[in-house]
Amino acid sequence: MRIDLHCHSTASDGTDTPAELVRNAAAAGLDAVALTDHDTTRGYAEAVAALPEGLTLVTGAELSCRVDGVSLHMLAYLFDPEEPALLAERELVRDDRVPRAQAMIAKLNALDVPVTWEQVERIAQGGSVGRPHVASALVELGVVPTVSDAFTEEWLADGGRAFVEKHETDPFEAIRLVKGAGGVCVFAHPAAAKRGRTVPEPTIAALAAAGLDGIEVDHMDHDEATRARLRGLAAELDLLVTGSSDYHGSRKTVALGAYTTDPEVYGEITRRSTGAFPVPGTGGA
User: Fold this and answer.
1) Which of 43, 91, 155, 205 is 20 to 30 A away from residue 176, measured at CA?
2) CA distances (Å), 108 to each of 25, 68, 253, in order?
3) Under 8 Å CB-to-CB from 221, ≥6 apart: which residues?
4) pTM higher than 0.90, yes or no?
């Protein structure tokens, strides 16, 4: 089985619609794919309706968190999307995205970059607005050559000239909420240092003690030495190890299925979840 447990659609900051995402996942030879848009489950219905035969959909979300001043992302899988406490927290994070993006635009304007809210809104296509949409606007304007080049201290990286903080969930609270909704928690790209400061290993150990299920090891932002170190840490802390593309369509260069999760780990994730179940494809529209 080929399993990719971290993908985004236009419901957040990907460029494939949820329907396109599942069709492209099947075309890429995947057997299971997770839809993990940022702080939203809006893409679920469309993805399920279009799910091709032979492809299984794992529902999820990538939750925006912060601990000790460091931003991190928590992949939540197979939780009940209607569970009130987790739903309320996701809405709180999402509601802060628009004023945050507008504040970043104001900072960019002060730096003589002529980005506009209308431009960013058009790029977002109704999805949850985030830094990648602002970064895409910078690419359109020729300020930077790629989206990744916008995530530097010069522009949008944590602490950068145009960076603006947003409401982010304490990861210990995120674990509690996801578990309360019957889900499973995996720390996304925990050592992606080029994105900014990373969470130290003692904090990962504390998260494991609080119920963290796993860490995403095989990821484009981790080199081989980092992956080896994280595998050792996972073994020490008895955490599951996942691998994922973190696919965003044309917004990133990585392809669907570029990194995958071991079928036994996938089986353990599904065994631990009680909030939802993977959806088998029967031939979508």
Assistant:
1) 43
2) 36, 27, 25
3) 189, 191, 192, 193, 194, 195, 246
4) no
